[in-house]
Amino acid sequence: MKLIVEADGGSRGNPGRAAFGALVREAPSGRVLAERAAYLGESVTNNVAEYSGLIAGLRAALTLDPEAAVEVRMDSKLVVSQMSGAWKIKNADLGKLAAEARALIGPRAVAFTWVPRERNQAADALANEAMDELSVIERDFPGAAPSAAGRGLGDGLTASGKVKLSMSDAVRLAQAAASGAQRHAGAPGPITTIVLVRHGMSVDTDRDVFAGSAAPGPPLSPAGRLQAEAAGAELSRMVAAPWFGLARPTALASSPSARALETAAALGAAFGLEVEVDHGFVEQDFGLWDGLTKAEVDAKWPGGVAKWASDPAYAPGGGESREQVGARVKAALERVARARLGQTVVIASHAIATRAAIGAALGAPANAWFTFRVAPASINILRLWDLGLTEVVCTNRTAAPPAEIG
What we know:
Blueprint: E1 2-12, E2 16-27, E3 32-44, H1 46-64, E4 69-74, H2 77-83, H3 92-105, E5 110-114, H4 121-133, E6 136-140, H5 167-176, H6 181-184, E7 191-198, H7 222-240, E8 251-254, H8 258-271, E9 275-277, H9 294-300, H10 304-310, H11 322-339, E10 344-349, H12 351-362, E11 379-385, E12 390-397
Parallel strand pairs: 1-4, 4-5, 7-10, 8-9, 8-10
Antiparallel strand pairs: 1-2, 2-3, 3-6, 7-11, 11-12
Helix pairs in contact: 1-3, 7-8, 11-12
């Protein structure tokens, strides 16, 4: 069997709002067997979108027939020349995408052909559909070529007209159809996505110690290092899915604490990003309490722990109150959103600082923050518009444990 993959990608602004489109045809009939498209985010380049289309098209073709001979047709001279080996890949991000495409190809026979733009209109139309609707599209047509009628978001129509969707397809569609600020406000202006990852467990986590902003603070425990790696892997899967509205991160920041920096290093390894230290996302300053257990604090300052838990204006040990943490973190979020407008930024932080960020997005007062569960190495996603609108997309997401091996 021979299959033809037509792929394209586009970015309005380059970088800007981007999406890819790809379809698989049966050769020589030209019958369409599958269509794939997805919105990639608000600050993605044309080249990244084009490579993403290539990967999606290859994956669809090789799922249809792992033994098929595949011809890829694209109007991107850069992608075709680089994948054919005629041009070197100098950009690190494109190099990773090209490696992902080559891993899909493996030993199979795949040829790359450049075609003029007017001969790649079907893939271009799919990319624009996904870009316009901020959607994910997966359509399979094993029985007959698709008709123009009835092709709704994510439809997978068989020859009998029945919907054919996998569970993962359905989950992605749910994200694309989610109601929220992006729907009700019509997504005004550029959006900055903030991904806050709490550090993994430290060597003091089980001791119930007040570990605050004092540097360097306790390092990660062996379990914490594994949790940080798992968070990086989970976030990579969410980006690759693609999880709605979550574009590939372009920046990585961390609190200066050792446990956060170790976590950030694992996240940076997952995306090839350098870590920038940002003091705005450090943990609450516990002053004289830092490094003490709750029992030790209550022995020296009777009733202090209860007062700290109930009064957000109370500064424990002469340090920082939760209300002060809230003001600091809110200012840091706004600063990052302005500096990284339209981008996705990952920040390794702490429990109370992350609760403060979620509270800022919700407009929740500091005395309500302990109602937010923030597990070690959990992923928490906020979106900030340049007009001040905020949205909480995801909280307390941790990696699913992999199947045990051996």
